[in-house]
Amino acid sequence: MTATIPERPAAASVAPAPPPERRPTRRTPLTWYRGGGLANLLFVLPMVFVFFFFSWSPIVQSVIMSLQKTNLIVSEWVGFDNYVAVLTDPQLGRAVINTLFFALLALLFGFPLPLFMAVLMSEVRRAKGLYSALAYLPVVIPPVVAVLLWRFFYDSSPNGVFNTALSWFGIPPQPWISSAVQAMPSLVLEATWAAAGGSIIIYLAALLSVPPELYDAAEVDGAGIWRKVWHVTLPQLRGILFIMLILQIIATAQVFLEPFLFTGGGPAGATKTILLYIYDKAFRNSLGGDYGEATAVSVLLAIVLAILSWLYFKLTNRWSAS
Amino acid sequence: MSERTIVSASERRRPGTRAGLAVTHVFLFATLVIAGLGPILWLAKAAVTPTQDTLQQPFALWPNGIDWENLSTAWNDIHIDQYFFNTIVIAAGAWLTQLFIATTAGYALSVLRPKYAPILNGLVLATLFIPGIVLLVPLYLTIVNPPLLGDVSLLNSYLAVWLPMGANAFNILLVKRFFDSLPREVFEAAKTDGAGPFRLFWSIVLPMSKPILGVVSVFAIIAAWKDYLWPMLVLPDPAVQPLSVRLPAVQSQTELDVFLAALAIATLIPIAMFLLFQNVFLRSAGLGGAVKG
């Protein structure tokens, strides 16, 4: 692919001899090989192979399929019919609202909590390693195990694990995931527990990078502990906070495991998220799904997330450059 | 000079602040033990407790009887042993695939730098913006019938899990950036001594890159161990499914105490790995957000 310039040995021998230093610029298969062209190709090949089959080609296919009706044997072009169908489907609207609700709850509870914990943890002098390890433990538990365990914790009978704990404080048994109102907050509670440790570790590292002189300077100006947190720590963490925010939104927009295993989208569709909607469209029917409409939703979601990822990339680049 | 944090040394000497820090200590300890250790300890206890005890008194410290049978029943009768083995095979293959792709690609893009490297780099980076999950359907159809390969299907083959995991742009970016930071003089010296591109890769670049290889390994193994939706789709045959896929599937036909024992066994290895390689885990976690760009 690099040896595109044809060999012209005869012409070269007849023509006036070129200056010797220009000779390496002539490209033949042999110079290509000697220049390491074959080795380059061998090192590039594995990456090109997997990316072609499992990334680039599916991306293109995704766009094509969203414009087709297919039963895997015959495909016909239908223009934007799939998009119109899903965008006018009230079920998708419901799924978007559910996903936004999940994202909002995760933002309200899941976002400030790790920051709060990390600030406290960075202040204690002893047992720091122990605290980090304890905080990270839930992240290590396989997510499927965590969800199945919590599903048992959420047992709505008075003898359920969480309900027993609540009874110690005189709180009556809660229905948890079996009620349409409490189901989504329950999922967010578990997801927050499962993910907080990772964020705590990231914030702990970021807190170490706050220049100590800033705290010294704030003290000279007479700032107390809370004012230092507000006027030094938080502004210094602005970059990483924004990055974590975008990462969390990207992750929550794709939430699948919790609603799928906890509630299967129920009760009464209260936890059916966008990904569950895509899954149902494509895979619920064992005879073959509506791949066209499923990919149409995927493409729409991908566009939104790609914009967020791009924003994230811009920010991290600026952030690591400064 | 020791590194300082928000609370200064002089503030630490004040009684009010000291009391506050003591309260903080207690609060942190209680919260982290309850939230971090609590569920694991509860699961460990429930794994050897008869079903009725767990149902009626979930917090009883001393169960009426200890039922060690649960563990062996889970291991033998619901074939946790086999699914466990499948999980390990999946994780090991995913680890090898990702390490192989990321290092060869990183080496080509960072050290060898053929003329077309910027194009490939751009094409790989572009996939960072496409969330993997939205490729679900076309990727699934690719596995059912891979293009250009005729009438083969990768369904129920571990390649269906390993290979897509290899197409990980983030790994390549991490490794490439690390290779970029290696001293070029060492490469030049090795080349002068007659090392070819393969020798340079194997004997110079890889041994110098152990930290980043550790990070990529942790990411790869954790991702493979956690994965649920994808293996569920491409490994429909229960005989080849990993624990994460089998556990929800067997729940309805399994006695509760045995099922909780199965969950405990499934948690054991990740916890053990974490305790052994704590530093690598925590460093990778920090890297995950902080230096991603």
What would your notes on this structure say?
The complex is a heterodimer of chains A (322) and B (293). Chain A is 71% helix and 2% strand. Chain A has 322 residues and is an all-alpha fold. Chain A has two domains: 1-35, no CATH class; 84-321, MetI-like fold (Orthogonal Bundle). Chain A has a two-stranded antiparallel sheet with strand order 1-2. In chain A, helix 5 crosses helix 15 (274-284) and helix 15 (274-284) packs antiparallel against helix 16. The longest helix of chain A has 31 residues, at 291-321. Chain A starts with 8 loop residues before the first helix and ends with a helix. Residues 1-18 of chain A have low confidence and may be disordered. Chain B has 293 residues and is mostly helical. Helix content of chain B is 72%, strand content 0%. Chain B has 16 helices and no strands. At the A-B interface, helix 3, helix 6, helix 7, helix 8 and helix 9 of A face helix 2, helix 5, helix 6, helix 7 and helix 8 of B.
Brief account:
The complex is a heterodimer of chains A (about 325) and B (about 290). With about 325 residues, chain A is an all-alpha fold.
